[in-house]
Amino acid sequence: MGNVLNLTTLTRSTALRTTLRERKCVICAEKFKQARTMQKVCSPACGAEYSRREREKKERKQDRARKAALKTRSDWIKGAQHAFNAYIRARDRNLPCICCGKPLKDSDTGGGFDCGHYRSVGSAPHLRFDERNANGQTKQCNRYGSGRAVDYRLGLIARIGLAAVEVLEADQTPKRYTISELQQIKATYKAKLAKLRKEVACIT
Ligand SMILES: [Zn+2]
Ligand SMILES: [Zn+2]
Question: Which residues form the domain of 204?
Fold first, then answer.
């Protein structure tokens, strides 16, 4: 019997010795020897700081959830549109303006030129997230050049072909996005933009 007991004690102390490690304090980065498993901090002071940070983290998360709950459908549309437009600008950064052929000048903030919709978001909201309907365009042409529609059409035909342009022009199917669809669209275009940026970083 004594042997069995000894063996158990031995096994337990070996286990303790192996799980109680020397590790770095997650707050001050000093090395310390753990007094119990899962111990992350070296001292009570670092422990208090750790709890404070954890509490803040939790509050930030709750804040985000609260804000998300307050968002209206139109807020979600705005967010999705923002992500979509950013992707289109990144996609077209090396192309000329769709309507006048002038080079698009990018800026570090990404606002050097616009994502211009062929059929405008106002008059054809169902095409607001259609990649064929949206192209890099100088701010000048997009904002002050409503007369550029004919040139836009020519530029678009050159890019995607007459058949596709006519499909866009004939499309009157209304779309109503649910909030979860809008969240999905936003996530999709954020991911597409990240992928594009990664590819560019690989080339340059
Ligand atoms: Zn510490
Ligand atoms: Zn133009």
Answer: 178-204
